[in-house]
Specification:
- This protein has about 350 residues and is an alpha/beta fold.
- It is built from 12 helices and 16 strands.
Length: about 350
């Protein structure tokens, strides 16, 4: 991007700290930022910054020692940054608290439906800069696809989202730690009421054209309340299963698939059913980093909009779904929508 401005002066670079930037997802965030935005300075942070030396050298980033348990000291030593992206576990919101107190924006991608409360209150109370919570599947990719699908509907009755994880698709330490807590209990919307379920007791089969169906169980991600709030649908669930992805079955590398099945009525009151499929040939870590990149662009106003104001922000409200889906496609993600049978089995 050309960062020159009228009169030849150059605007100040946006400085983004990616904590956990040498991990699997964090590394992709660093790569995407440095190859997309010339006017963004990237700092790779973590407890062991030396692990990011090769990545920093390759992509022109710098390194900083940031320990989430003493985040304030790390940020003081680093100096001013415009945005902290947390690609690490921050169970007690220490990094979020330190960032907001330093008047730095924050994006976190690890919160779930059952532990968002303290984070939301903290982000609201320390509203000096925006704090975007992207604990949605793949940092919002599934919700963006659902909201874009809903544009065709006059009324949405039921939404069933599912993700297929291919065991051949690498998962970083953060994702592995997250998965241990995803399956304790899950939030669903059924008959217009919230319902907490034990995942193993609510398994469903997800069909695929030309591929074997897979069993999937509900997860406690934020996509469920996000889609409920945006569409008003009385029935919403999100599930994950494992199996051979489209990429693996075609002889390539493991891909990551998301399926958004939606039933309701069109604007004339006629029955309507659609499936939107999101497939990233580079796998789940790349797709998560793309979701984070879309959030970064929105928070900083890099998408030609105004930077976000201070306070708690959610991607389903802050980001236009058409822009998000276009960005996913720009980076090679396949997003297709096809008709579905108008009938289905109950939740």
């Amino acid at each position: 991007m050309d960062i020159s401005s009228v009169g030849g002066a150059k605007p100040r670079l946006k400085r983004v700290l990616v904590v956990g930037g040498y991990g699997l997802v964090g590394g992709w965030i660093v790569r995407l930022l440095r190859t997309t935005w010339d006017d963004v300075e990237v700092v790779i942070g973590g407890r062991r910054p030396e692990e990011g030396e090769a990545l920093a050298k390759e992509y022109g980033a710098t390194l900083a020692r940031i320990d989430t348990t003493d985040a304030e000291a790390g940020l003081v030593a680093l100096g001013p940054v415009d945005l902290v992206v947390a690609a690490v576990q921050d169970p007690d919101d220490d990094l979020l608290r330190a960032a907001l107190r330093a008047e730095t924006a924050h994006i976190g991608i690890v919160r779930k439906a059952d532990n968002l409360g303290p984070t939301a209150v903290l982000a609201t109370d320390l509203a000096r800069r925006p704090a975007m919570v992207m604990g949605h599947w793949q940092a919002g990719a599934a919700t963006f696809a659902a909201l874009e699908t809903a544009r065709e509907f006059g009324r949405v009755e039921r939404v069933e989202l599912a993700a297929l994880f291919d065991p051949a698709d690498p998962a970083g330490q953060m994702s592995t730690q997250d998965s241990e807590s995803f399956f304790t209990r899950a939030l669903m919307r059924a008959d217009g009421h919230w319902k907490w379920v034990t995942p193993k007791d609510a398994v469903r089969m997800v069909g695929r054209d030309g591929e074997q169906p897979f069993g999937a169980q509900p997860m406690g991600v934020l996509d469920v309340p996000a889609v409920v709030a945006a569409t008003g649908a009385p029935h919403v669930r999100f599930d994950i299963g494992t199996g051979e992805s489209a990429g693996t079955s075609s002889g390539g590398t493991a891909s990551h698939e998301i399926f958004v099945d939606m039933w309701g009525e069109d604007t004339r009151g006629h029955p309507l059913a659609r499936r939107t499929t999101v497939s990233d040939a580079r796998g789940q870590a790349h797709l998560t980093a793309l979701g984070a990149l879309i959030g970064i662009e929105r928070v900083l106003g890099l998408d030609d909009g105004e930077p976000l104001p201070a306070g708690l922000a959610l991607p389903e409200k802050a980001v236009d779904s058409s822009y998000a889906v276009d960005r996913l496609r720009h980076f090679g993600v396949t997003v297709t929508t096809d008709p579905l049978p108008s009938s289905r089995t109950p939740l």
